[in-house]
Amino acid sequence: MKSRNEISPDCQESPSRETALQVRPGPVIKPHYESHYSEESWEVTVALPGVEKDDLKVNIENEILDLQGVRRRDVPESFRPLAEYPDERRYRLRLDVGPEVDPEKIEAHLEDGILSLRLPLREEVKPRSIPIH
Amino acid sequence: MKLIRYNQPSSFLSDWDSFFADPYRAFAPFFRSTLSSARESAAPLVEWYEDDENYYAQVDLPGISKKELKVDAEDGLLRLVYESHEESSEKETRDEQFEHVLRCPEGVDVGKACANLKNGVLRLTLPKAEQNRPVSIQVK
Q: Which residues of chain A neighbour B120 with C-beta distances below 8 Å?
């Protein structure tokens, strides 16, 4: 399921544009996510199990929210894998948040492998009731 | 989080995952509605490891807290049960429940198993029974 705001993680960026994490060769996984709109904000929740806070970067630029994270294999060397697993998994999610989000007020919180993003709408686009005189 | 022996007739065996299965389907109820995006993901649900003393299972459970999760061990099976009770408004309450059954490797002493949940990943430590551990024989 692809939301109208979603941008393909494979989408090429211009070389001059800085990214939070260098995208190395290898598969990049689009994490599962859900989004909800309200009158006040856009709430986005992203499943990132096993991703540490320090391995997660969220940037917003030109109305595009760019989330990049790395999940490193977190087991002692003495553990023998019983199947083939990658040493790390790279996640990327790019969302077009549009002009109505105020980039200065975005909040992010990581807990239990879920990143919760709150993207408040600009005051001028919030619905308001018009007083009748 | 409790880890207890669980004895129940094996009526739910159709829900088994094979020991080495690497199911890519969505697990957390939180993301139940996004099955198509779950399939796009290459993140495995379960990873299995071992050393001389234990087997280890790592299960992705994003969004689930320790309070909401119970792990029952039956002979050869691990049953992960998640229950949450959410009051979304004064009148409405939302109950969510799911269970997932993992087939345990043979020769595990489930009575000594332990579980740890961190960053949305459940780590199960399943001690091998004494008779299944490798023994080094001293050469005289």
A: 47-50, 112-114
Tell me the residue range of the domain where B123 lies.
2-132
Q: What is the mean pLDDT of chain A?
A: 83
Q: CA-nearest residue of chain B to A70?
A: B43
8 Å CB contact of A47 and B37: no
Counting residues of chain B whose pLDDT is more than 70, the rounded percentage is 61
Pairing mode, if any, of strands A28-29 and A88-96? Answer: parallel
Which of B56, B64, B117 lies nearest to residue A79, judging by beta carbons? B56
Is B138 domain-assigned?
A: no
CA quadruple B50, B54, B57, B62: dihedral positive or negative? negative
DSSP B110: G
How many distinct structural domains can be found in chain B? 1
Q: What are phi and psi of A106, to 5 degrees?
A: -70, 135
Under CATH, what is the fold of the domain A28-73+83-125? Immunoglobulin-like (2.60.40)
Distance to chain A for B99, nearest Cα, Å: 18
Residue B95 maps to which CATH number?
2.60.40.790
pLDDT at A110: 96
**pLDDT tens digits along A2-55:** 455 676 655 444 443 444 455 455 689 999 999 998 888 999 999 999 999 999
**Is the Cβ of B116 closer than 8 Å to some Cβ of chain A?**
no
Domain boundaries, chain A: 28-73+83-125
| ipTM of this complex prediction, to 2 decimal places | 0.73
Residues (pLDDT < 50) of chain B are: 6-44
The predicted structure's pLDDT at residue B3: 61
